[in-house]
Structures are given as C-alpha cells and as structure tokens.
Amino acid sequence: MDGIVYLYQYQLQKFFNDSSACTMGVAYEWKGxxxxxxxxxxxxxxxxxxxVACAFLKARSKEEFDNPSRVVDSCVAMSPALRQAKIxxxxxxxxxxxxxxxxxMDSPGKRYRVExxxxxxxxxxxxxxxxxxxxxxxxxxxxVGLGSGGASIAVELAKAGVGHFSLVDFDRLELHNISRHIxxxxxxxxxxxxxxxxxxxxxxxxxxxxxxPVDMMQEAELTERxxxxxDLVIAATDSLASRYMLNSLIIKYKKVGLFGRAVTRAEGGDxxxxxxxxxxxxxxxxxxxLVGEEEITDVRRARETGVIPAxxxxxxxxxxxxxxxxxxxxxxxTMVVKLAIQELSRGxxxxxxxxxxxxxxxxxxxxxxxxxxxxxxxxxxxNPGRKKPTILQWYGVKFAKSCDCHECRDF
Length: 411
Ligand SMILES: [Zn+2]
Description:
This protein is an alpha/beta fold. It has helices at 13-17, 62-65, 68-78, 120-123, 133-137, 150-159, 192-203, 220-229, 240-252, 299-304, 314-320, 326-344, and strands at residues 3-7, 22-29, 35-39, 50-58, 87-94, 97-104, 111-116, 140-144, 164-168, 208-212, 232-235, 256-262, 268-274, 363-367, 395-397. The strands form two sheets. It has an eight-stranded mixed sheet, sandwiched between helices. The chain has a seven-stranded mixed beta barrel with strand order 1-3-2-4-5-6-7. α6 (150-159) runs parallel beside α7 (192-203).
C-alpha cells in the first residue's frame, strides 16, 4: 500500500495566500504504517501519533511540481532548516486548481497520496436516513460528570450527530480511572473536560463544545445558567448532593433530565428520566428503588467526603473504589444515550420517534449479577413467563409523582 498524508483543508488557506514558497509544519506518524497527518497550526482536533517535522512547499510551475526533488532542493537552499523535515507536501496552484503531492525528504522518489480530511457536509452522510442528523446538530446537551458514564455518553451522542455540548467536571484523569474510561494512559493528568472535548471533536470536528472544569456545587450561578440554556441535562455525577441540585434546576427550567448511575461494583444500575409534569428525582427519595450505596469512583474525593475513613490504608481505599468492569457500566450508558436521542429527536420526523410507544418508562433498572442489591432476583433463565426479573435485561418502572414532593409539586 502507498503511504498517505492527510491534510486539514481549513489550515491551508493562509499558506496559499502567503507569498512565501515554503514553511515548516508538524506531521504525526504511526511507526511503520506510512500514514501521516500534517498540520500548519495546532489543530482543533487533538492529534495522536508521533510528531515529526514536515515541510509545506509551493512549486513555481507545473514542470517543477512534476519534479518534486527540484522543489525540495530549491526550498532547502533558501531555508536549510527544512532539511529537518521527514516529509514534504508540495502544492501547485494554477487556474484555481490545487495540485498536491507528498514525498519523503530523504528519498524524494518515495511518494505519498495526499487526502483531505472531509468537511462537515461529508462527515455524517452515512447516518442520514437513520436519524435526522440535522435536527440533533442544533441540540445542546449538558453533561455533568465525565467519568466512566458521562465521557462514554458524550462520545456516543457526538456520533449520533448532537452538535452542542456543555461539559462539567473538575477532575483529572488518574491511573485508577483508565480501565473504565474512554481515555488511555496517553492522557493521564489531563482535565476530563478537555479529554472528552477532544474525543467529541475527533468524531465531529464541527461540534461546539464548551468546557467547565469546575465543581458545580461551588458554582451555583454557572450551573443554573447551563441548565437554563440546554435542551437536555445528563447527570452522571457520583454525589447525591449534585444530583439533587440538578433535579431542582431541571424542575425550575422545565427541562428533561436523565440520571444514570451504577450501584457499587457495578452490580447493576439504573436510569431515571425526569420530564415536565412527571415524577422527579426527589419523588424517588425513600422509594425502595433508590436504595443502594453511592458509587465511589475516586479515592481522594471519597476520603474528603468521609466515605472512606481517614484511617483506611491506601491499599484498602483502592480496593473500595473497584467500581466494576467497564462492560458492566456500558449497558447503563447505552440506555442513557437511547433515552437522550429519543428526547432530543422528539417533535422531529425520524425513525427513532417510533420508540415513543415502548420506551416510555420513568425509571429503568439493570442487574449484571446477584451479590447485594439483586441477590433476591430470581435466577437467570429460571423463570418461565418472566414473572420475576432476571439479570442482563432492562426493566422499566412507571412512577406516580409524589404529591407531597417538596421539589416538583408545581412542575
Ligand atoms: Zn418530585
């Protein structure tokens, strides 16, 4: 296979308008794969791969363009630093037509195919017909909490074509997050808001992503504004207090909210949907469905909040945050995403609206196995007629609004 160099068209205009014949850029390569992504400026979508220098060159004539080594030699004579480059991308513009090629600087006989990363109009053509991409493109989703839940949900919604995101989380990626988070060790230490922004932009470079690396409990005014401005609130936080605060704001601004969580060690989980006129998070308080320990996902925060006592050894504390496997959290994320798309596409003409007849519960429960909360559920496949719940299956529950709920009486 020939090598390929990918370019981002929007970065080239300045170079074409410039009078200079050559300039340095940065290319990212994957060792042994002969694939480069070349940039003239720090890209909107965070690059991956190993960075090498590359040269952007202009040929003065068609004849010169057809002899890349001549272009390389004349540019290096003018600007010896270009010798450092590993590849050269050569352009020739004539009559409004841009010709382009790329060569290896050490052996200009070695050519690469040059491609542009497609623009907005081409990126999501495959989704058309299944969902109305244009409709979701205008929607805004607020996601609070970007751990193993919120981060995955954000990326799935970007893939579905959601165009606007507000992301709230003050945490940085730590080693113990890696096995369940979308990010890998190459992003350790980064703010989760920025990691998720980059992951969204990797799927849709034209999404608008606003990041807020703050503790929402300390930023009441900001949180209120974000809820007021959004079409949908996704609460993927690991604290009760923050969920109650979001619940109040969802009611105040008549928004739709989705509350997803995994119960301890991801034995199972649940998703609550709050809609204007329906039951709210506080209506469930004291309900048998909402029992279960709070999810603990971070040792430092668990110590700060007293969930893990100060005298607990580091080893024991780490054991306490073993919150289950990613695969056990995935079903909960998927349900949140499905409900999110259903809510966002409400009122638009798309196939998924047909789900409205069936996906109409307020609360959804899922069990991965039987240890603590689900120990009394009937064994898997031992329940002909399915009178009792089994593991690995969703159960929808309809709730009556609690008439004395202090939060949503007037919702
Ligand atoms: Zn209520």
